[in-house]
Amino acid sequence: MQILRAVQYAPRAPFRLIGEVSGVSEQTAARRYHALRRSGVMRVVGLVNPAVHGDAQWIARIRCRPDRVGPLAGALARRPDIAYASIASGGSEIICIIRSPLDAPREDMLLQQLPRSAAVLDVSIDLLIHPFGSTDTAGWTGYGGHLTPEHKHLLAGGPRPAPAGPLLPPTADDAPLLDSLSEDGRTTHTQLAELTGWSKGRIARRLEALENSGTLSYDIDLLPERLGYHLTATLWLRTAPTRLQQTGDEIARHDEVAFTGATSGNHNMMTIVVCHDAEDLYRYLTTRLGATPGIDAYQVSIRTRRLKQAASLISHGRLVHPAPA
C-alpha cells in the first residue's frame, strides 16, 4: 500500500525514491508496481486540463428504464467527451461527467445524442464549478499507508510549486508526447524521446513547461474493489455559500473521499466516497461526514457498476485504456 501512496503523491517519481519511502529495493518497487498495472488494479495517466480547449466539466444524471440502462451507459462511456461514467441507484440512473464548452447549449452536449425513446425518463445537467482538495488530498487514500513530510519532500524533490499559469496550449508537435502519457503517465523520458524524435533534454523542458502551467497533470486510477472496498457512493450535499470552501476542503481531506467539488445544482456539492461495505458507509455518514459543519442536506446514490473514470474504461474488473473514438 505504501507504493500506491508514493505513486499517488508523485506519479512520475523514480522507482529508486518510491522504494526508499516504501522500505523496499528499487527492483521490488518496480516489480510490485508493474504487477498492479498488469493486473488492471491501477494506472497512472497524464491528463490535459480541459480548460486548455475551452471546455468545462458538466455533471449529468440520467434516469432511464432499468432494462435499457446498460447499453446506454456503455455507449456514453466510450465517448471521448465523457470523463466519468457509472450506473447507480439500483440500476436506473447513469451518472457521468461531460467535457464541453461553457457556452455550449446543454441539449447539444448530450441530449440530442441520447436515444429518443421511452428509455430515458429524466435528465439533469449541472456545471462542476470547482474541485476541492490540494495535491496532497486529491484522490482516494482509504486503502492505507502513510507518507511523512520527509517522504513527500523526497518524492517531490523539494516543495512543489503551484501552477504558474497561464495555461500553455499544446501544439501539434506535443500530440505523440501527450498521447503516450495518457496511456501510461510513467512513460520514461527515454521512451518519450524515441516516440517523438526529440532529445531527452527537450522532453524534460517541455514536460516541465506543460506541468508548471497547469496544462498537464497526472492522476492514478484505482479499482477499489480489487483492494477489498466494494461500496462506492455519490453524495449530493448542500451547504451555505459562505461555508462552501471550508466544508469542501474539509471533506476532501477524508480518506474515504475519492472526489469532491462544488456544482451548480440544488445540492451544491458532489462527493464520491469509497467504503468496505454498507456498514462502513453508515459509519462514515454518521461520524466523519456527520461531524463536518455546514451540511444542511444530502442524498446518496449507490454505485452498482463502474464504467469509466479519469482516462480508463473498465472492462471485466480491469482498468483499460479507452479505444480510439
UniProtKB/TrEMBL annotation:
Give all residue intervals belonging to the HTH asnC-type domain.
Answer: 177-230
Keywords for the protein's UniProt record, in alphabetical order: DNA-binding, Transcription, Transcription regulation
Xref: Pfam families:
AsnC_trans_reg (PF01037), HTH_24 (PF13412), HTH_AsnC-type (PF13404)
Specify the superkingdom.
Bacteria
Query: What is this protein identified as?
Result: Transcriptional regulator
UniProt organism field: Streptomyces daghestanicus
Family annotation (SUPFAM superfamilies): Dimeric alpha+beta barrel, Winged helix' DNA-binding domain
Matching PANTHER family: LEUCINE-RESPONSIVE REGULATORY PROTEIN, TRANSCRIPTIONAL REGULATOR AZLB
Q: Upper taxonomic classification of the species?
A: Bacteria, Bacillati, Actinomycetota, Actinomycetes, Kitasatosporales
The UniProt entry, under InterPro entries, shows: AsnC-type_HTH_dom, Dimeric_a/b-barrel, Tscrpt_reg_AsnC-like, Tscrpt_reg_AsnC/Lrp_C, WH-like_DNA-bd_sf, WH_DNA-bd_sf
